[in-house]
Amino acid sequence: MRIGLALGAGGVVGAAWMIGALDALEEQTGFRAADASVVLGTSVGSLIATMVAGDVSTAAMAAYVSGDPVEAPSELDGHDAMALRLARVPLPIGPGSLRMMLAARNRTTFLTGLLPRGVLRTDAISRLVEQAVGKQWPDRCALAIVACDYSNGERVEFGPERTPAATPGEAVAASCAIPGFYEPVRIGGRRYIDGGVYSHSNLDLLAASQLDTVIALNPMSSPAWLAGGGVTERIAGARRRRSSALLAAEVGALRETGTNVLVLEPAFADLAAMGPNMMDRGRRAQAIEAGRASTARALRRLGRKRLRKVGLAAG
């Protein structure tokens, strides 16, 4: 059975949550993420996807993310993918991309172009990828990394046989280049930014992959909704509702092709552990544990029969 894995956007906290979720998925079903036929990564999901394709274990990723110097693998030692370095002296003016604003297909793309250009470098991200998997694309599975063209907001898939040509490190850095935060990444004469600008999940890109099942981990959406809170919490809630709506449409399109889709996303307890700021490094350890616990509960609720239907043998 051909199984695809889609890892979505979610910042530092979302990455931690997905690592915990992947660990629970393996523990509960016996399915290793590295055994997927196709792995699709968006934004920070591209970093996790590349590690998965390079056969870096979830235990090693968890140790690295939580900062455990004993358990972290030697190939990741000494590298901090969230190290922040200025690309240039920031100028408090915008917009960052007039061309994107003029070519905007929706409000999100327009607002992205309106943001000042990011001034933080993605060098640490690309170096981490190269240190872990090298400059050649892993051949264990088909790996696709989603970014957006900074001139028009359109999606671009990077991969070993795709154009424009890029190394895994370059592709992941581009996919993780949050607009207004990170400097756009130049590849082949063009500039690219976060693939989450188009969609946090980009599941519809797997429709032509002839997969029996797709397992989607999407830290930015949630069926849970927390009422109240301050401005930050309300903005986070609106962002999650938008992500959920996009995800539902993509799941529907994928199921129309006959593909089974299993969506794993944060529940109430996860939202409390993750907080509204997806770049809060202080929440990494608790986000891993929340993802592990809620995913285990979700898989147990599905039961052996449903897991078998989607190609996952319950343990």
At a glance:
The chain has 315 residues and is an alpha/beta fold. The protein contains 10 helices and 8 strands. Helix 1 crosses helix 10, helix 6 packs antiparallel against helix 7 and helix 9 runs antiparallel to helix 10.
Segments where pLDDT lies below 50 for 5+ residues? none
- Mean pLDDT, rounded to whole units? 87
Helix tally? 10
Helical content (DSSP H or I, runs of 4+): 40-55%
Written description of the protein model:
41% of the residues lie in helices and 13% in strands. The protein has helices at residues 11-29, 44-53, 58-66, 98-102, 107-114, 123-133, 168-175, 231-255, 268-274, 284-309, and strands at residues 3-7, 38-42, 142-149, 155-158, 185-187, 190-194, 213-217, 260-264. Strands 1, 2, 3, 4, 5, 6, 7 and 8 form an 8-stranded mixed sheet that branches. α2 packs antiparallel against α7. The model has no long low-confidence stretch (mean pLDDT 87).
